[in-house]
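Case study 2.
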Amino acid sequence: MRRYSPAHLFEVSRTAHLIVVPTRFVQVETVLTIDRLRVSRGGSLVLNNVTAEVASGRVAGLLGASGSGKSTLMRSIVGVQRIDSGKITVLNLPAGAKELRRKVGYVSQSPAVYLDLTVIENLNYFSSIFALHDTRVEEVLERVSLSGARKQLASSLSGGQRARLSLALALLPSPAILVLDEPTVGLDPLLREELWDHFHELASQGCTLLVSSHVMDEAERCDDLVLLRDGQVIFHSSPANLKASTEADNLDSAFLTLAKRAKNEF
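Prediction:
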């Protein structure tokens, strides 16, 4: 789906939708569309009328405080969350469609690995499911810096190592879209830097990444931002535009300004 997307200025309206004031347009390929999504969990409304789009080959950051709805939105995108209303389209297919199983990679906050298998056994098992060549296993093993732990049981890995193994499993089939729920939590700064470099390398090759975080310095590494507050989108554009719209020097101050503005308007 080709759209013409504004590249510059915007402001947030009183209904939490974005009013876009374009100064120039660029042609983009939209691979993810969220349209008026509403989700309830445990009788409480978690996502309220969420609308957003993500273009191909971009690193989009999903940011917000704990409880803002980030994980629920990601679960909805990969099709494992029951929704109340609205629509999510992924690569021109409904979210969760079986045709998307090899095209969308998902890494949840809790690493999904077999603890009684070694690192290489986990990778070989999932590689066999996707009928991949052995060289692909070695590629992702090297990419997430786990070559030295290849024969180590997953149960004996540190939290950061398990997170990297979970990421490796998601990377195996070379997905067109990667949905990563706080993938750098618990990692040391050097490894975080390496992973973000890899995220941008994947994006340069056409992969689209949606990365959630509550750490604002990671927002600077994203091409686009979707900020959630109390289950609503309060901002959807670039980091530079966020600072420009709030006249802030840094993203921490910009987010606080936007959150306060939204609180007064809702």
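The chain has two domains: 2-103+175-265, 111-174.
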